[in-house]
């Protein structure tokens, strides 16, 4: 190697490295997407159900709420939450009727009301997303409703169907979906509740079950249009009517949930083909909706993609909001057509550290805040007000907070002989055991350590901001707290140990067997942060000398265990579906038990007085009388302690400067259509934050190259010397 070639070579290498730096080396996305109108976000748990009749988890509704359109929705900006039309022409006005068929006035007493009737008219001109279920040939015949073996063999995913079609949304599509709540092959989590209200739904389930049993084996499609449901009827092309037993004021909120979104019979027929089911081409995997987005890629272990629905009808950004919304830039896009973003890419991230790092690099547009990154992101100023740190502010990152209408709790399976009891003696023992644990598990400490103070210990299932919630001394749980110096104080561990002894486990030893008490805790924990939290939980039980065995699994397996009643103790949470106390209290209503009823009462709690009061309370308007009933229900729950009430979280979210129109909430889930991305700013900031530092690499290469020069020179001298000796030898010869 000639020294004279070394420097030019290094200059060429440096120029090549510099040229390559135009696209960030650490960019996890393809280069051609850099300036496209795409929102980048994450999901942590794979969704199990995307069929709106079965889906009921927060990790699922983040997709389904963008795809399906129930008739109603919540105003994006107004607080308290206000229902507005989605596909409906207007909010339906309920009409009441007595047992003799006479219409009653709007202020009729609940006991006088035999039926409530909701008549819903939808807007004309709304169309479904493009989908092969609607595809026809030139003669109008369905292309894919009766696939033969050869055609089926050529299909592996939905995109393999070359033709798609669409049609207008009609009232029958909403009626069809409500009928599906009673389908014998589907397991809707709200069937039990709705069967108590929708006239004839329970009997309709029996009709469908019989029809399914009598169906020839080769006929895979049960056409629900052939079976009439008494309480749900088509009035005309754009109008349908729902008849409810008695009075249920909260029913109108359900009309804003995906359970009541439209499903076209064509999609049901298409997906019922046995060959497609075997290939996992089902409504649970490939939704069909009229919403602003459609699911175009579904790899729940890695990545899911929503793209703008080309058939989405006219909907516009709200023109009015709350005081402060205009100043905060939330009305800049008033009146503009939705949605603003073309594509949303969800990447599955199980671990918090890579998720956080990619957010700081600009590769995720928003981020939650884990406890390990809280101090880096948030500082408290003034009267405990939270704001971003200087480092975050320099990057243009802003903090958005909102009190969540949510509760996180630890539940006891009341069917378990140890924590629930099988007879009166066992139930009394189990109740005192649950009360003792309720005192021992210090949720004040939990919130401080693992939530960085973002929450408040729960005194009941009802979260703050919901009618029925009590504050101050009258709102504390007297089983767990005393009221001392104007604030709640958790009872001592000695009080918990006394209850434990009364339960038959003095110092954590089972009196009957002499063996230590061992309890089992089912969770979906995976990360290092989760392990720390579980270690903390073990220590809480250890205060009572109880051994807590953690059984960790994935979320789908966890759901199966809860559904079958195979968990002993578990942790879960609930985000309110609608802003009413009934939506929290029904979580412990006996007929809503998971086991046997597939409801949302995961603890399988049963108390006759509580159930009677719930049935009375649920049909009442808010007021002093309803509050009195709620207070008694809460008193029963606190005494029975089927849950450790856990805590109510406060949501903190970080958003980059280019992420606009954000007003967080957990009631309205169809919010992606309102968001906007400034792609030019994002591209610029990504380039600034991820510019590779090349000179150290070049310097190292230069040092290495120079270090080889003596060796190269020595090698050249050796070669020259060898050549001279060889020439001399030849001459001598």
Explain this structure to me?
This is ABC-type transport system substrate-binding protein. Belongs to the bacterial solute-binding protein 5 family. Keywords: Membrane, Signal, Transmembrane, Transmembrane helix, Transport. One of its GO terms (molecular function) is peptide transmembrane transporter activity. Residues 1-21 form the signal peptide. By secondary structure, the protein is an alpha+beta fold. The chain has 3 domains: 38-336, Dipeptide-binding Protein, Domain 1 (Dipeptide-binding Protein, domain 1); 415-651, Dipeptide-binding Protein, Domain 3 (Dipeptide-binding Protein, domain 3, Roll); 696-727. The protein has 23 helices and 25 strands. Strands 12, 15, 16, 17, 20, 21, 22 and 23 form an 8-stranded mixed sheet that branches. Strand 7 and strand 8 form a beta hairpin. Helix 13 (424-440) runs antiparallel to helix 15 (493-502) and helix 20 packs antiparallel against helix 21. The chain is globular, with a radius of gyration of 31 Å. The two termini are 33 Å apart. The model has no long low-confidence stretch (mean pLDDT 91).
Topology (SSEs and partners):
Layout: H1 3-20, E1 38-43, H2 58-67, E2 72-74, E3 83-85, E4 95-97, E5 103-104, E6 115-121, H3 149-153, H4 171-180, H5 191-195, H6 201-214, E7 232-236, E8 239-245, H7 251-254, H8 265-271, H9 274-278, E9 293-299, E10 303-308, E11 343-348, H10 352-360, E12 366-367, H11 374-377, E13 378-381, E14 385-388, H12 390-394, E15 398-403, E16 406-412, H13 424-440, H14 443-450, E17 455-457, E18 481-484, E19 487-490, H15 493-502, E20 518-523, H16 528-542, E21 547-552, H17 555-564, E22 569-575, H18 582-585, H19 594-597, H20 608-617, H21 624-640, E23 643-655, E24 659-660, E25 676-677, H22 679-689, H23 695-732
Parallel strand pairs: 1-11, 20-21, 20-22
Antiparallel strand pairs: 2-3, 4-5, 4-6, 6-8, 7-8, 9-10, 10-11, 12-23, 13-14, 15-23, 16-22, 16-23, 17-23, 18-19, 24-25
């Amino acid at each position: 190697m000639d020294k004279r070639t070394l420097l030019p070579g290094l200059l060429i290498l440096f120029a090549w490295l510099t040229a390559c730096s135009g696209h960030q080396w650490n960019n996890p996305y393809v280069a051609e997407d850099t300036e496209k109108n795409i929102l980048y976000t994450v999901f942590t748990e794979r969704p199990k159900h995307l069929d709106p009749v079965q889906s009921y988890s927060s990790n699922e509704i983040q997709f389904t709420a963008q795809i399906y359109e129930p008739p109603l929705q919540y105003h994006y900006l107004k607080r308290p939450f206000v229902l507005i039309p989605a596909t409906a022409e207007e909010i339906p006005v309920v009409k009441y009727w007595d047992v003799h068929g006479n219409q009653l006035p709007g202020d009729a007493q609940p006991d006088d009301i035999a039926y409530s009737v909701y008549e819903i008219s939808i807007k004309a001109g709304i169309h479904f997303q493009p989908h092969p279920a609607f595809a026809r040939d030139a003669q109008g015949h369905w292309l894919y409703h009766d696939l033969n073996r050869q055609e089926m063999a050529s299909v592996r995913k939905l995109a393999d169907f070359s033709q798609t079609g669409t049609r207008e949304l009609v009232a029958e599509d909403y009626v069809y979906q409500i009928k599906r709540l009673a389908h014998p092959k589907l397991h809707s989590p709200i069937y039990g509740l709705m069967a108590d209200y929708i006239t004839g739904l329970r009997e309709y389930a029996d009709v469908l079950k019989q029809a399914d049993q009598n169906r020839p084996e080769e006929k895979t499609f049960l056409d629900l249009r052939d079976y009439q449901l008494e309480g749900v009827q088509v009035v005309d092309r754009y109008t349908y009517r729902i008849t409810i037993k008695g009075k249920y004021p909260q029913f109108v909120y359900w009309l804003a949930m995906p359970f009541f979104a439209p499903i076209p019979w064509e999609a049901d027929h298409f997906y019922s083909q046995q060959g497609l089911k075997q290939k996992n081409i089902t409504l649970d995997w490939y939704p069909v909706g009229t919403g602003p987005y459609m699911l175009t890629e579904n790899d729940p272990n890695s990545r899911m993609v929503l793209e703008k629905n080309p058939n989405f009808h006219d909907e516009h950004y709200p023109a009015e909001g709350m005081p402060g919304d205009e100043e905060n830039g939330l009305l800049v896009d008033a009146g503009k057509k939705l949605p603003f973003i073309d594509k949303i890419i969800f990447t599955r991230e199980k671990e918090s550290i890579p998720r956080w790092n990619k957010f700081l690099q600009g590769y995720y547009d928003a981020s939650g805040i884990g406890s390990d990154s809280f101090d880096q992101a948030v500082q408290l100023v003034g009267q405990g007000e939270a704001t971003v740190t200087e480092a975050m502010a320099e990057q243009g990152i802003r903090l958005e907070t909102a009190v969540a209408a949510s509760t996180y709790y630890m539940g006891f399976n009341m069917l378990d002989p140890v924590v629930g009891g099988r007879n009166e003696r066992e139930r009394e023992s189990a109740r005192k055991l649950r009360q003792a644990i309720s005192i021992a598990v210090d949720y004040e400490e939990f919130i401080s350590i693992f939530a960085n103070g973002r929450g408040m210990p729960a005194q009941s299932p009802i979260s703050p901001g919901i009618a029925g919630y009590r504050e101050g001394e009258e709102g504390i749980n007297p089983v767990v707290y005393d009221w001392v110096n104007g604030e709640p104080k958790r009872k001592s561990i000695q009080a918990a140990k006394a209850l434990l002894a009364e339960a038959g486990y003095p110092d954590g030893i089972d009196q009957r067997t002499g063996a230590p008490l061992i309890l089992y805790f089912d969770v979906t924990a995976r990360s290092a942060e989760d392990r720390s939290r579980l270690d903390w939980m073990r220590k809480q039980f250890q205060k009572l000398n109880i051994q807590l065995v953690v059984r960790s699994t994935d979320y789908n397996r966890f759901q199966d265990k809860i559904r079958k009643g195979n968990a002993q103790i578990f942790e879960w949470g609930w985000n309110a579906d609608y802003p009413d106390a009934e939506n929290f209290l029904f979580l412990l209503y006996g007929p809503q038990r998971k086991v046997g009823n597939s409801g949302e009462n995961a603890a399988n709690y049963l108390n006759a007085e509580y159930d009677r009061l719930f049935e009375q309370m649920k049909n009442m308007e808010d007021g002093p009388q309803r509050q009195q009933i709620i207070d008694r229900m809460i008193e029963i729950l606190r005494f029975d302690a089927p849950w450790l009430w856990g805590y109510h979280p406060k949501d903190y979210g970080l958003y980059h400067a280019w992420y606009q129109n954000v007003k967080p909430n957990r009631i309205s889930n169809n919010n992606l259509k309102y968001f906007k991305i400034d792609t030019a700013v994002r591209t610029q900031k990504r380039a600034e934050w991820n510019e590779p530092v090349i000179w150290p690499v070049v310097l190292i290469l230069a040092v290495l190259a120079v270090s080889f020069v003596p060796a190269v020179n020595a090698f050249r001298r050796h070669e020259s010397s060898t050549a001279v000796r060889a020439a001399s030898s030849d001459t001598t010869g």
